[in-house]
Amino acid sequence: MIWLNQVIQGVLLGGYYALIACGLSFMFGVMRIINLAHGDLAILAAYLVWAIVDRSGLSPFVALAIVLPLMGALGWLLQRALLERSLRAGVLVPLLTTFGLAIVIQNLLFLQFGADTRSLAPAIGDLAFDSWSIGSQIYIGHLAGLEFLVAVLMLGGLQLLLARTPLGRSIRAIAEDPDTAELVGINSRRVYAAAAAIAVMTVAVGGAFLGMRATFGPYAGPAQLIFAFEAVVIGGLGSMWGTLAGGIALGVAQNVGAQISPNGFLIAGHAVFLVVLAARLLRQRIRAAP
Amino acid sequence: MSARAGLGIQRWTPLSAAAVAGLGTLAVALAFGPLYLGANAVDRLTTLFIYVILAVMWNALAGYGGLVSVGQQAFFGAGAYAAIRLSSFGVDVYFALALGGVFAGLVALALSSFALRLRGGEFAIGMWVLAELFHLLVNLDRLIQGETGTSLIALNAFGPAARRDYNYWLALAVMAGLVALMFALLRGRLGSSVQAIRDSEEAAASLGVRVLTTKRILFVVAGAGSGLAGTLYLATSISFQPATYFGVQWTAYMVFMALVGGLGTFEGPIIGALVFFALESLFGASGVWYLVGLGATAVVFALYLPRGLWGTLEERFGVRLLPVGYRVRAREPAAGSRPPRQEGTSRDSRL
C-alpha cells in the first residue's frame, strides 16, 4: 500500500513538473531554443506573488492574476531585447545569453529578498493541508489535485491554441519554416514575442504553485529548470501531452526512489532521465543502421 | 587564375613567433616565481593558473567544438573526489592529485559515447544533470560525510610554505602542459576537423571527418583538464565540500572567461581568465553585485561582442599571437596592391 501511495503522490507531483515544463517545451517547439533562465523566471514569479500577498493580504490566486500579465510582458521584452538577437547569432548564443540572464536573476532576487526561504502555504489556509482520503492509507491533497487539474487544463489550452487559433497557426508555420512563413505575410517577430510571452506566463503559474506547495529561495531556479527539462525530454521534446507523461514518469521515479533511500529522490529522477535519453539515442542508431 | 601562383598559406608570422617565444620566456620566469614573489602573490597566481586551465578547456569544447556544456563541474568535482579517495587508500598525495585528472579523463571517455550524441541544449543540460548526479553519488561515499565534506589530510605532511610552492609549480606545469597540448591539437588535423564539425556535422562527415572520434578526443582532454583544475583547487584549499566542487558556478566562470576573452580564438580564454582574475581581485568582495555584473557582462558580450575582446582585436588588426588557423597571403605583393590579409577558411586541405 505504501508503494501504491508513493506512485499516486508521484503522479500528482508529475502535475507540478508538467506545469513548470510546458513553457520550456512550448518555447523549444516554436523557437528551437532552451531557455536556461526558465527556472529562475518561475522563482521570480513566485517572489512577485509572495510580495503582493505579503503586502496586501490578497489570496495568492488573485496575486497570480496580477502577476500573470507582468510576466507576459517580461516574456515579450525578453524575446525582443535578448532572444531575438541571440537567435540570429546561431544555436549556441541563446544558451549563453540565457545562462547569463539566469545568474543575473538569481542574484538580483537574493539582493531584493535575502537568503530566507519563503512559502505561500500560510496564505492559502486549509487548501495547504486538506485532502481526500481513499481507503485508509492514501490521501490526495486538495492542492496537489488542483495543481494536476491546472496542468491538464494548461496543456490542453496550449494544444487548443496551437491547433485552433490564428495565432497558433502562425506559431506552427514559423516553427516549421520561418522564412516561408514571412513570405506568406506572417510577422515572425511578433509571433515569436507572443510565444515567449505565453511561455513565460505558464512558467509564472508553475512558480506560484511551487510557492504554495513548498518553500523557495533565490537560488532555487536551476533545480526547477533541471526538473522541467527532464520532464520535457522524457516525454519527447516539443510534444505537449508528452510533457505531462514525462512529468508523471519523473515524479513517480522520484517518489519511488525516495521510498528506497533518503538520497533516492533526486538520484532516481536523474537516472530515469538519463536512461530514457540513452534508450532514445540507441533506438535512433538502430534505425539509422542499414 | 594568374593570381593563384602568388598565393601562399601562412601559419606563422614574425609577430606570432615572437609571441610564442615571449610566452616561453614568461613561463620560465614564472617557474622561478616563488624565489622572488611574496606568499600572497604565489597563492593568487596559482588561482590564476587554475582559471586559465578552466577557460582554455571550456573554450576548446564550446568555441572550437560547438559543444556548450553546463556540466564541466562534473569533471572538476570528479577529479578532486578521486584524489581524496586515492589518498585515503594510501597513494602518495601529489600522485593522487595527478591521478585525479586521469580519472576525470576516464569518466569523460566513459560518458563520451552517450553525451556526444546529444545536440545543443540537450548536451548542455544533459551534462548538467550528469554533474548533479555525480554530486549525489559522491555524497553517498561515507568518507565524504555528505555535504559536510572532508579534507585532503595527507597534504598536512608538508608545511604551509612548501605546500604553497609545490602547488604553484604543479599548477604552472599543468597549465603550461595543457595549453601547449591544446595548441598542438587545435593547430593540427583535429583543430580543422573539429571546426568543420562545429560548422556542419553532416558536411564534415561527408568530407571524411570522423565526427565522433574527433569530438571524443576534445571532450576527453577537456574533461581531464577540468579534472586537473579540480585537483589543483583541492591542493590549494585542502577541504572538499561536494556542493562547492560540483557547483554550477564553475561553468559560469568558464563561460564568462571564454566569452569575454573571445570564444573560438586560442588566445581569447587566456585573456578572459586574466580579466576574470582582475575583476575578482577588485570586486570579488562586493559579493552578490559582483555576480550580477558577471552575468550581465556575459549577456552583453554574447549579444554584442560575440568574438570577445581578443576576437574583436584579431578581426580588426589581423593579429595572431598563437596561430592555430591558416591564412592566405600573397607571397610577393604586386606593386600598388595590398596583400590580401583575410583569414582563409580554416579547413585543412588534407581532409
Question: What would you note in describing this structure?
Answer:
The complex is a heterodimer of chains A (290) and B (351). Chain A has helices at 2-31, 38-56, 60-88, 93-113, 142-164, 166-176, 178-183, 188-213, 221-235, 240-260, 264-288, and strands at residues 118-119, 131-134, 138-141, 215-216. By secondary structure, chain A is mainly alpha-helical. Chain A has a single domain, classed as ABC transporter involved in vitamin B12 uptake, BtuC, CATH 1.10.3470. In chain A, strand 2 and strand 3 form a beta hairpin. In chain A, helix 1 (2-31) packs across helix 9 (221-235) and helix 1 packs antiparallel against helix 10. The model of chain A has no long low-confidence stretch (mean pLDDT 87). In chain B, 46% of the residues are buried. Chain B has one domain: ABC transporter involved in vitamin B12 uptake, BtuC, CATH 1.10.3470. Chain B has helices at 14-31, 33-36, 39-64, 73-88, 93-115, 120-140, 160-187, 189-199, 201-206, 211-237, 242-245, 249-261, 268-283, 288-304, 308-317; strands spanning 7-10, 150-151, 239-240, 327-330. Chain B has 15 helices and 4 strands. Chain B is globular and about 65 Å long. In chain B, the strands form 2 sheets. A two-stranded antiparallel sheet of chain B has the order 1-4. The A-B interface holds A 28, 33-34, 36, 82, 85-86, 89, 91-93, 95-97, 99-104, 106-108, 110-111, 222, 225-226, 229-230, 233, 237, 263, 266-267, 270-271, 273-274, 277-278, 281, 285 and B 62, 66, 68, 70, 114, 117-118, 120-122, 124-126, 128-130, 132-133, 136-137, 139-140, 248, 252, 255, 259, 288-289, 291-292, 294-299, 302-303, 306.
Describe this protein with a few key phrases.
A: 290 residues, ABC transporter involved in vitamin B12 uptake, BtuC, 4 strands, 4% strand, globular, B: 351 residues, mainly alpha, two-stranded antiparallel sheet, 68% helix
Task: Please specify the SSE layout and strand pairing.
The complex is a heterodimer of chains A (290) and B (351).
Chain A: H1 2-31, H2 38-56, H3 60-88, H4 93-113, E1 118-119, E2 131-134, E3 138-141, H5 142-164, H6 166-176, H7 178-183, H8 188-213, E4 215-216, H9 221-235, H10 240-260, H11 264-288
Antiparallel strand pairs in A: 1-4, 2-3
Helix pairs in contact in A: 1-5, 1-8, 1-9, 1-10, 2-3, 2-4, 2-8, 2-9, 3-4, 3-8, 5-6, 5-8, 6-8, 9-10, 9-11, 10-11
Chain B: E1 7-10, H1 14-31, H2 33-36, H3 39-64, H4 73-88, H5 93-115, H6 120-140, E2 150-151, H7 160-187, H8 189-199, H9 201-206, H10 211-237, E3 239-240, H11 242-245, H12 249-261, H13 268-283, H14 288-304, H15 308-317, E4 327-330
Antiparallel strand pairs in B: 1-4, 2-3
